[in-house]
Design goal:
Mean pLDDT: 89
Number of helices: 6
Radius of gyration: 17 Å
Number of strands: 0
Distance between the termini: 24 Å
Shape: globular
Strand content: under 5%
Helix content: over 70%
Number of domains: 1
């Protein structure tokens, strides 16, 4: 039972973090387009914002996959995802509704719900830890006492 739980936690972490690793890599390949997109959403076009985005998306997601400081990485991604969801999807949802663009509003609603689901998974990792197959759990028994610890 313990092995299946730990294996499930490993696969879950990889599946949860994959979207961020791929997104971070894509942003690294075209930083100008990313900063232009940030500006289009009213954000200041700052290289610092770009670097923070890459650090969170690529860096924290990579930590989450290997399970090193996974609770903190999940919590940072969760906190970062709040303004991202509000700025990029909630705002665009209301904009599409106001412009009577039903398809655009539906897409943005789906994106908000997707982000909320991902945020729920991130909170699960932050709350219960990465499992035994992780850098944080390196061969030690990650028992019930560890899963109840706060992040």
């Amino acid at each position: 039972m313990e092995v299946s739980r730990d294996f499930g936690a490993l696969v879950g972490r990889v599946m949860l973090a994959l979207i961020f690793v791929l997104s971070g890599y894509q942003k690294l390949m075209d930083p100008a387009a990313v900063m232009k997109g940030m500006g289009a959403h009213g954000l200041p076009i700052l290289p610092v914002a770009f670097v923070v985005t890459i650090a969170i998306e690529f860096g924290c997601a990579s930590l989450l996959i290997v399970g090193y400081k996974a609770r903190w990485a999940a919590l940072l991604i969760f906190l970062w995802f709040i303004p991202v969801t509000l700025i990029y999807h909630v705002h665009d949802y209301y904009k599409a509704v106001a412009q009577q663009q039903a398809a655009g509003a539906l897409i943005q609603r789906i994106m908000v719900l997707k982000n909320l689901s991902i945020m729920g998974g991130l909170l699960m990792v932050a709350s219960f830890g990465p499992g035994g197959i992780s850098a944080d759990g390196r061969g030690r028994d990650v028992g019930a006492a560890d899963t109840r610890r706060a992040a």
